[in-house]
Amino acid sequence: MLIACQTGDTEAFSGLYRLTSPQLFGLALRILRRRDWAEEAVQECFVTIWRRAKDYRPDLGPALPWITVILRNKCLDRLRREKPLQPLDESAAAERPDEGPSPLEGALAADDARRLKDCVDELEDDQRKSILLAYYEGLTHEQLAARLATPLGTVKSWIRRGLQRLKRCLEP
Amino acid sequence: MSIDTDDLNDLAGEYVLGTLAGAERVAFEGRLQRDTAAMRAVALWAQHLQPLADAATPAIPAPQLWQRIERDLGLPTRTKTRGPMWIAAAVAAAIVAVAFLFPDLYMKPDVNAVAQLAPPTGGEPAFVVSVLDDQEKLLIRAATVAPQPNNSYELWVVPQTGAPISLGVVEQAGETERDVAENLRPLLAVGGTLAVSLEPVGGSTTGAPTTVMFVGALTPPSE
């Protein structure tokens, strides 16, 4: 579908939007916690997908992770541009999804998900906590250090060692 | 594996995770434009961490969002609406959300204090409020609440001195999650007082509670 977008196929592009936007919006809402910001992140994400579809390299991996990186980068840009504020409207808080799981790609993705979960479970508590906080709340090393009341160097090492351990576990 | 490769893997992992920030992030993004090894390392990490993205609960953005994207890109807008199809896709995605693969992958939030809000005259608690994550968040659970379709319930924190301060309208059923403004967090420590009032739909129009229905003190969470 993304390949079709590379050739300027607007039908494929709208199909990609229909297929992926609920999951991407859910993730953006999880990270940004504001409906207006999350919608803007998804909007910017799809604008970038269309403009940069030619940069996507199918030989390097599937499309959805490529799209997720773009979306999370939009979310991180927003978080780092603005100080977190209280949600402006009630709907933002009310509609913020709870953290239930929901693999988009069904059985195919389930194997990957289970493998990642097993590897995440094997991390030390501090490593797991800091990596998940970074992923779902978009925290920088400095923000993690403040949140976890831990020296910056220690947090950096939790993240780095945690990622190294994940990689060894996922790519034995 | 060489030291350079290890270093590249670390950088790529932190880039995908998002902890790589500031000048380091900008520098790495520059490298991504031209360095295939860096692109490959990022693609691999993106694939590894994708299940975390899949595990977020899907949500439905405003129907106008697609029009905004088309407008930004100057794409020809279709006259026929795709609404129903689009919603069907969203619902289908939500239905896929069945396999509970990550129940404990999410951190259990740190509960700082709990308040059971009951009628001042006594009786069952109507709302249970949990203060989470160093007073940054509230989880408000409607316990035994009489539905008031023509009114809203509004949550307030009652300082030792001064007027009650609104924490927003809360759902009459299920749970409401609320981020707490930084200046209000100290008021949500153990010993603080919360109240829920009955208000016109949308909340108090005066900035003060209209009819206080339920009150309760914040107590330490039970283990």
> Given the structure, what is the number of helices of chain B?
5
Strand content of chain A: under 5%
- The count of strands of chain A amounts to 0
User: Rounded to an integer, what's the Rg of chain A over CA atoms?
Assistant: 17 Å
What is the subunit arrangement here?
Answer: heterodimer
Question: pLDDT under 50 segments of chain B (min length 5)?
Answer: 79-108
Tally of helical segments of chain A: 9
- Strand adjacency order, main sheet of chain B: 5-4-7-8-1-2-3-6
The tally of beta strands of chain B, per DSSP, is 8
Which pair of protein chains has the largest interface, and what are the residue counts? A-B, 83 and 69 residues
Secondary-structure content class of chain A:
mainly alpha
Structural class of the secondary elements of chain B? alpha+beta
Strand portion of chain B, in percent?
A: 15-25%
How would you describe the shape of chain B? Answer: elongated
N- and C-termini, Cα separation of chain B: 47 Å
Basic shape of chain A: globular
* Helix/strand order of chain A: HHHHHHHHH
